[in-house]
């Protein structure tokens, strides 16, 4: 075999000059563009992680929930729930819907509630009495499990004992 002959099975026209394969160049470029688009979409927050803020206000208190509404599976994230009291709350309770914990790893809550209970898939946190004109922030650390793709309801209900003060309805979307 001469030094300028291509190896066996490699044709100069087909493999070097790409004759008969010109459209495959565009298929290859399109595939590379798709792979490059995913990180760009992530930078534009299409797949989540940036917090969204939901608020509700009543005569006795206000409730703010800051948490991502879109997350990628496997992502560790924090939700901040802030209660501002205008009047004394004798027994402040937060009830979180099942979407906060369904296929989501609960890592911790600060400050710790004095009591926790569960009923009908909802988790109740009892923080006890909170005086008027108090800002009461609560941080919850969570992680979206890798098998947790889909939409999950994340309602947050603020109550004074058994009487409900307000509810914020939200949804968490988890990307695979």
The helix/strand series, from N terminus to C terminus, equals: HHEEEEEEEEEEEEE
Instruction: Bin the helical content.
Output: 10-25%
The CATH topology of the largest domain corresponds to Immunoglobulin-like
Number of helices: 2
Task: Write out the CATH superfamily name of the largest domain.
Answer: Immunoglobulins
Strand sequence of the main sheet, in spatial order? 1-2-4-9-6
CATH class of the largest domain: Mainly Beta
Residue stretches low in confidence (pLDDT < 50, at least 5 long) are none
Number of domains: 2
As a percent range, the share of strand residues is over 45%
Count the beta strands.
13
Q: Outline, from the CA principal axes?
A: rod-shaped
Our Rg estimate from Cα atoms comes to 27 Å
The CATH architecture of the largest domain is Sandwich
Ends distance:
53 Å
- Largest beta sheet, briefly? 5 strands, antiparallel
Residue-averaged pLDDT, rounded?
88
- Tell me the structural class: alpha+beta
């Amino acid at each position: 075999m001469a030094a300028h002959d291509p190896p066996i099975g490699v044709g100069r026209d087909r493999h070097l000059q790409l004759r008969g394969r010109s459209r495959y160049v565009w298929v290859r470029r399109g595939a590379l563009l798709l792979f490059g688009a995913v990180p760009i979409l992530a930078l534009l927050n299409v797949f989540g992680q940036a917090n969204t803020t939901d608020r509700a206000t009543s005569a006795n208190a206000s409730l703010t929930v800051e948490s991502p509404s879109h997350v990628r599976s496997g992502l560790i994230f924090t939700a901040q729930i802030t209660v501002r009291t205008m009047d004394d709350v004798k027994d402040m309770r937060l009830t979180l819907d099942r979407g906060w914990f369904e296929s989501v790893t609960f890592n911790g809550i600060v400050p710790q509630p004095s009591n926790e209970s569960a009923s009908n898939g909802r988790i109740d946190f009892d923080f006890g009495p909170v005086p008027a004109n108090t800002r009461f922030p609560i941080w919850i650390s969570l992680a979206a499990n890798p098998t947790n793709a889909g939409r999950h309801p994340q309602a947050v209900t603020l109550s004074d004992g058994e009487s409900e003060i307000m509810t914020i309805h939200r949804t968490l979307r988890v990307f695979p």
